[in-house]
Write a structure and sequence with these properties.
324 residues; alpha/beta; 12% strand; elongated
Length: 324
């Protein structure tokens, strides 16, 4: 029904890939969703992470970027059948116990039961760890229809397995050799912060983790390694990721396009909630709503059957009275 984001490049990316979608470029704090009241199956979104991340000083509700109040208001305005909100793992830290309880109370006052759960992207085929907290909410009496998605039994691909074809796309002859070294999943992809200087793979610790996989995390490049790229053991000679490679690490399909130059495009990638995890949770919400609808249909059929029986008995009684 509507997709709301206040970043112009993100909105242009949505329009580029799905021109038929209703993309609204707006600040959620100023956006009113009242026109969608009682029309929505699912309100889903990712509120900003810095208020709950260690990198963002974990100021919680004291951080001006906290959009949980806006999310609660939008749910109140629309009264959807289900809710899904994503954030960083820090939201589960003990210091936010009271804040999570306040969020749950707000939703309970509207008739919803909510649960928070930590999911790792690597459990759903994504080649990076990326732990994220998901909050799912449904009406109190119906939440038992929802079941959290289970981790896949097949391990995710390594960075090398996931990216070897992209590393070789420019004719680099050592791509297979590099892939054999990049034999683990990636660290959590970071670098999507607006306050972050440019397109790189995050702070020093993250860069060290990428270096162990044979990737130079100081920059992203526009193109994959060329045929004459040396790829020596020295840090500066390690290949760089492209935005497309980073997008694949996040689970984006290769046909998804990103609007904007490297910094704007990577900011979208770095801020993303991996699509395979979102899909796994979304499918479970869909199954819960389908189950609820099936119960309602069954109850409706049973009610109609009982009405028919009642009507038939009443007709028979009327006929008996007429005969008498």
């Amino acid at each position: 029904m509507a997709l709301v984001d206040y970043e112009p490049p993100a909105c242009k990316t949505l329009r580029l890939n799905r021109p038929e979608w209703n993309v609204i470029e707006a600040d959620l704090n100023q956006f009113s969703a009242t026109e969608y009241c009682n029309m929505i199956d699912l309100v889903a979104g990712g509120v900003p992470c810095p208020p709950f991340s260690k990198a963002g000083k974990q100021l919680g509700s004291d951080d001006e970027r906290d959009l949980f109040p806006a999310a609660i208001r939008i749910v109140r305005e629309t009264m959807p059948r289900a809710i899904m909100i994503e954030n960083v793992s820090g939201l589960l830290d003990a210091k936010f116990d009271d804040y999570r309880a306040e969020i749950a109370e707000e939703f309970q006052a509207m008739g919803y039961h909510v649960e928070f759960k930590l999911l790792n992207a690597s459990d759903f085929g994504v080649p990076q760890l990326r732990p994220r907290v998901i909050m799912v909410g449904l009406p109190k009496a119906l939440f038992h229809h929802f079941v959290w998605p289970q981790p896949q039994l097949i391990p995710p691909p390594t960075v090398g397995e996931a990216l070897v074809d992209l590393m070789a796309a420019g004719g680099w002859p050592l791509a297979e050799q590099w892939a054999a070294r990049a034999n683990k999943i990636a660290p959590t992809l970071v670098g999507g912060s607006k306050k972050h200087g440019g397109p790189d793979l995050g702070p020093t610790r993250a860069k060290r983790a990428w270096a162990e996989l044979g990737v130079n995390g100081h920059l992203l490049k526009d193109e994959p390694p060329s045929p004459d790229f040396t790829g020596k053991e020295g840090f500066e000679d390690m290949p760089y990721l492209t935005v497309r490679m980073a997008a694949r690490i996040q689970g984006f399909p290769d046909d998804w396009q990103f609007f904007g130059r490297k910094t704007a495009a990577y900011r979208q990638v770095g801020n993303a909630f991996p699509a395979p995890v979102s899909e796994a949770v979304g499918r479970q919400i869909y199954a819960a709503l389908e189950s609820i609808d099936n119960v309602k249909r069954q109850m409706g059929r049973e009610a109609r059957r009982l009405r028919r029986i009642h009507q038939e008995r009443e007709n028979q009684q009327n006929e008996n009275r007429e005969v008498a």
